[in-house]
Amino acid sequence: MSVELNHTIVHSRDNRESAEFLAHVLGLEVGAEWGPFVPVDTSNKVTLDFVSVPAESIVMQHYAFLVSDEEFDAAFDRIEQAGITYYADPHRKQPGEINRHHGGRGLYFMDPAGHGMEIITHPYVIPQH
After folding, report:
1. To the nearest 5 percent, what fractions of the chain are helix, strand and coil?
2. To pair with 98 at 20 to 30 A between CA atoms, which of 18, 64, 66, 76?
3. Which residues are within 8 A (CB) of 28 and not within 5 positions of it... i.e. 6 or more apart?
4. Measured in whole angstroms, how far is the alpha carbon of residue 9 from the centre of its chain?
5. In 3D, which of 15, 66, 103, 10 has the Cα closest to residue 75?
6. C-alpha closest to that of 28 among 75, 70, 73
7. If 0-12 CB within 10 Å is exposed, 13-18 middle and 19+ buried, where does residue 71 land?
8. DSSP per position, 31-61
9. pLDDT tens profile 103-117
10. Across the beta sheet with 62-66, what order do the strands follow?
């Protein structure tokens, strides 16, 4: 068996709110609550398990999702329809813009718990040493 990421726990103020937010933006389904977790499965079989924790214990994390051009267009439309502020850069200096890095398109937005979310249409090209 090869090594694959199976799941990760995402701290949130409200697990259902955060799971439903991300699922809506990405066009995914929210799974059945399992213990303290509200899961969202991605197409590559990685589960994001949202769990409610005290707000003061949440440390911002970054989650990047590789999507097709069609999925990007649909997600971008949902972001705009919901009035979600988006940025071309992770430092949030370019609001209302998308980027065209690495031969594709990308944007950043914040989830309800303050995590930085990113959608990209092409993987980053990282030079090999």
Report:
1. 25, 30, 45
2. 18
3. 22, 40, 41, 42
4. 13
5. 66
6. 75
7. middle
8. ---BTTEEEEE-TTS-EEEEEE--GGG----
9. 999 999 999 999 999
10. 62-66, 116-120, 106-110, 86-87
In angstroms, rounded to a whole number, what is the distance separating the alpha carbons of residues 92 and 107? 10
Q: Assess whether pLDDT exceeds 80 at residue 74.
A: yes
- pTM of the complete model: 0.94
Determine the Cα–Cα distance for residues 82 and 87; give it in Å rounded to an integer.
15
30 and 42 in contact (C-beta within 8 Å)? no
Nearest to 75 by CA among 121, 125, 38: 121
Q: Is 62 left (phi over 0), alpha (psi -120 to 50) or beta?
A: beta
